[in-house]
Write a structure and sequence with these properties.
Blueprint lengths: L17 H12 L7 E6 L2 E6 L2 E8 L2 H17 L3 E7 L2 E7 L4 E2 L6 E2 H13 L2 E2 L8 E4 L2 E4 L6 E2 L19 H5 L7 H12 L3 E2 L5
Parallel strand pairs: 7-12
Antiparallel strand pairs: 1-2, 2-3, 3-5, 4-5, 6-9, 8-11, 9-10
């Protein structure tokens, strides 16, 4: 995960930058202050701590970004128990999630394929396709595997050409998803998993 960064202690997320203002607006939506921010996770996400509990704050302040936050909340609510709260207003959407501990996959710390297959099988059984399976979006903590960043997730059978947003992760995204051809099915996620195996981020061994 990203190293610790306070809202006021980094020029990239300072209170007078766009990201800083987005963060402040998201915190305010849930009655939180800047002192709760302990790490910047991405351009629109931060780790926050309230008491002994760790959360992730995601903010989408414009059309596409807001759509992504709302879609992530919708899919996570069906498939997980991570959603704490969602705020939607004229200026955008803010999402508060349970924090997922661990580290993204790397060739030095690959994940067992069976663990990811299990995560995908549960997701597919519930009628969804993740659509953005990459090493950065798989978090490993011991034997525990979690998928993060669900903003591109969609229902199985969805028209790929009609999706409001489609990902492009070089080397991992299925061509049909890139070009918006056909409908969403499990092959999109299995294609990405095969690529992760081929590149050494995932290994074919059983859990111990």
């Amino acid at each position: 995960m990203a190293s610790g960064t306070s809202l006021g202690g980094d020029a990239r997320t300072g209170p007078h930058t766009r990201e800083g203002m987005n963060c402040a607006a998201g915190l305010a939506a849930f009655g939180l202050g800047a002192e709760t921010v302990v790490a910047r996770l991405g351009s629109r996400s931060w780790q926050v701590v309230v008491g002994q509990s760790h959360y992730v704050l995601k903010v989408g302040s414009s059309g596409p970004a807001s759509d992504g936050v709302l879609n992530e909340a919708r899919c996570l609510r069906v498939c997980t128990d991570r959603v704490i709260d969602l705020s939607e207003g004229p200026s955008g959407a803010a999402l508060l999630l349970r924090f997922v501990a661990g580290s993204p996959l790397s060739v030095e710390t690959p994940a067992p394929a069976i663990a990811i297959y299990r995560e995908l099988a549960e997701l597919h059984f519930r009628g969804f396709v993740f659509c953005d399976l990459t090493p950065a979006n798989v978090v490993l903590d011991g034997d525990q595997i979690d998928l993060i960043d669900w903003e591109y997730c969609c229902e199985r059978g969805a028209d790929l050409g009609a999706l409001l947003r489609r990902p492009y992760s070089s080397g991992f995204t299925h061509p049909d998803l890139i070009w918006g051809r056909g409908s969403a099915d499990t092959n999109i996620d299995l294609f990405a998993l095969d690529r992760m195996i081929a590149l050494g981020f995932v290994i074919r061994k059983t859990l111990t």
